[in-house]
Amino acid sequence: MIIAPTTVAKNEPGIVTEFKGTGFDRVGIAGDSKGLITVLDTARKVSKFDSSVLITGESGTGKELIARVIHRNSSRRDGPMVVINCGAIPGELLESELFGHEKGAFTGAHRPRIGRFEIADQGTIFLDEIGDMSPDLQVKLLRAIQERQFERVGGTSTIKVDIRVISATNKDLPVAIADGLFREDLYYRLHVIPIHIPPLRERKEDILLLADHFQNNLTKRMNGYQIKIFSEKAKQALLRYDWPGNIRELENLIERVSVLVEDQTIEPYDLPENIIANSFQSTSISVVSVFNNGIGFNQAVDQYQRSLILHALNETGWVKARAAQVLKMNRTTLVEKIKKMNIEPERETPFF
To answer: What is the pTM of this model?
Structure first.
């Protein structure tokens, strides 16, 4: 699901609560949480100017998407948007990638090469994972950003460019500065307009909207793909999970279950173990209750096993093969335990 492009409404000064109206293109970014709306509001404001922007946030939160939204809504939208991942390129090659090189500048430089700064002229350059750049190269980058000019590696001619700089990192740059790993002057040059993207676990209102959005994308990529429905319990499992990989992890999960689950409805047992494991927490016996109620070790273990088995059976509609798969045990072993514990279908305890 993609929320329509809109302007901003506020209930209190500085508190963004709604994003409505026209004039701002946010196509490709789904969600309506307060955290995301605040990010989009800042992106809307800064897109009108050429100020440097530093986007921070954990890996997988969508920093490049926000950078692209800023470029797409700026006066430079007709110019190039050049992306370079500073952490993915070895330090000895990154300078050439950024500024280009002349023929013979180093071993293997058989011909001149144009760098990303030149390619981005009249447009925007996005420096992703800027915190991974070596201190030596940071000095040259600072000059290029301040003066909008540089020399290619091995060259003497000064090249001038008209670019807008957006950078991003998942590192804590003030800590890196204190550790001598990042230049303070470069930080303040990049940190003119800060934008922090909250992790997905702090804006869970966006999870189901993002799931719909990713499924809609699959209909465009896969011929004949039919959008699947998440059961209410599957939805709750998604909402309870903390998503350490953020939006990237969610997108990968949606594609995985959409391809592998043949039924029209996705149930909790169709989800990965690390996601449904959170669901078991509500049915387990706490250590405190064991001691407070004078329950012995063997009785506590039996009750815990019974709770796990009954929960797995209820979640899989009492399909023992599926329940055994969820519990990671043999079906015959599960059947024996069901008979031994005299487990029968009963009204299910609320899942969440």
So the answer is: 0.74
